[in-house]
Amino acid sequence: MCTLEKRGDLFHLTLTGDDEHRFHPDTIASVLSLLEQAKSQSTKGSVLITTGHGNFFSNGFDLAWAQSARHGAIERMHQMVKSFKPVLAALLDLPMPTIAALNGHAAASGLMFALSHDYVFMRKDRGVLYMSEVDIGLPVPDYFSALVVAKVGSGIARRELLLSGKKLKGEDAVALGIVDSAAHDSAEGVVEATVSLGESLAAKKWNGEVYASIRKSLYPELCRMLELTANNLATHNH
Amino acid sequence: MCSLEKRDRLFILKLTGDGEHRLNPTLLDSLRSTINKIRSDPSSSKSVLITTSDGKFFSNGYDLALAESNPSLSVLMDAKLRSLIADLISLPMPTIAAVTGHASAAGCILAMSHDYVLMRRDRGFLYMSELDIELIVPAWFMAVIRMKIGSPAARRDVILTAAKVTADVGVKMGIVDSAYDSAVETVEAAVKLGEEIIKRGGDGHVYGKMRETLLREVLSHTIGEDESGLSVVRNTGSKL
């Protein structure tokens, strides 16, 4: 399902298996627990790199699981939407720089998971970003929109992402300012590039608590939605 | 500390001396009183302010050594800088920062709190140093960053990598308006820009009010809002 490995300063969180890595209550709980583990083991210079195996980074929520409940389908959807919030919160709160190395497609909550990282690298040759909600008739949770607004600056880019139903390839995503890079033609290439970035960030030996605090203060509205308190409300710290 | 020169209708405020122009209580008081003097000058609504500095530094931020020796002074410096920035935001004339040296942390915020940022490209950088020195960035600094740097990626680079932003990079990031080959050329360009702005005409009081509205989020952090939601700005001297 997912694993956490430490290699030097870098924590590697991997969504394993060749499937769509859909978010389901069990995967959500797994990811959350691994993020907590990374947090508890963090030291100065720690960095997190998240990637996946196969053609998908993550294709979003497990809608099949929701629908299999027949009468409880809506409840199950609500449950997943609600329980996913702490995953994004945990990423925003993580006391180390975070990098998403997209091996493949990222859709809906899978894309939100990616965007919750400080840096997002995509493949040039394969994989799309896709907010599928508009096509399948699902409303977008308020904290998803808050994340898009926080991370994507231009009105045009936000529209392309949330309202167009477009499947955005790497080059498009870079041009729209949604991802940092789409320069590599393979999953390995992307991971290598993120490891290289990770190592240069690790070399700074930043204090993780301070890093997390500063990161949260960059996104106050999003933090409010995720019920995270930026602890720089007392501004007298100089 | 700081000097004020009037060149035709331009006000040139300079952080003087070869030091780091650390924003300690004395310098902050001096800057505020100079800004007040500018504001109450009869020609103020038809003028432009240029802020620049001597030496290697625009300003290297708060006087951290002082803050360490006396923690209550850090509260004081923060309060005084907030007031100064609020005064700059409500100033009834366009403002230009001619950045001819390093601007770090609070010093960077001071530079960015001007309407135009002109910078030399051969030396010096803008540097939100907090991450490197294990300090948290105050929420009101973030408000300035959000209002002055449009791209989320650029904000992340400035704040979350403590990037040392040289002028040309600053232009690309949309933080700096234009870059020049030397300190002298930067100040000359600022003067030229100031004169062009004055020639365009317009009422500084209206300009100041519009800027307040545009930077309302910063004002609400620096000096708060009254119950009606309007920012409480002191000393505008304007009847508008």
TrEMBL record, chain A:
Record SUPFAM superfamilies: ClpP/crotonase
UniProt keyword annotation of Protein transport present: no
Organism annotation: Arabidopsis lyrata subsp. lyrata
The protein's Enzyme Commission number: 5.3.3.8
Top-level taxon of the source organism: Eukaryota
Reactions accelerated catalytically: a (3Z)-enoyl-CoA = a 4-saturated (2E)-enoyl-CoA; a (3E)-enoyl-CoA = a 4-saturated (2E)-enoyl-CoA
Any one GO CC term of the record: peroxisome
A GO molecular-function annotation: delta(3)-delta(2)-enoyl-CoA isomerase activity
Recorded family membership: Belongs to the enoyl-CoA hydratase/isomerase family.
Pathway given in the UniProt record: Lipid metabolism; fatty acid beta-oxidation
Keywords of this entry: Fatty acid metabolism, Isomerase, Lipid metabolism
Protein's name in the database: Delta(3)-Delta(2)-enoyl-CoA isomerase
GO annotation, biological process: fatty acid beta-oxidation
Pfam family, one: ECH_1
Automatic annotation (TrEMBL), chain B:
GO biological process: fatty acid beta-oxidation
Source taxonomy: Eukaryota, Viridiplantae, Streptophyta, Embryophyta, Tracheophyta
GO molecular function annotation: delta(3)-delta(2)-enoyl-CoA isomerase activity
Pfam families linked: ECH_1
Family designation: Belongs to the enoyl-CoA hydratase/isomerase family.
Descriptive protein name: Delta(3)-Delta(2)-enoyl-CoA isomerase
Highest taxon, organism lineage: Eukaryota
UniProt catalytic activity: a (3Z)-enoyl-CoA = a 4-saturated (2E)-enoyl-CoA; a (3E)-enoyl-CoA = a 4-saturated (2E)-enoyl-CoA
Enzyme class, broadest EC rank: isomerase
Metabolic or biological pathway: Lipid metabolism; fatty acid beta-oxidation
E.C. designation(s): 5.3.3.8
GO CC terms in record: peroxisome
Secretion signal span: none
Alphabetically ordered keywords of this record: Fatty acid metabolism, Isomerase, Lipid metabolism
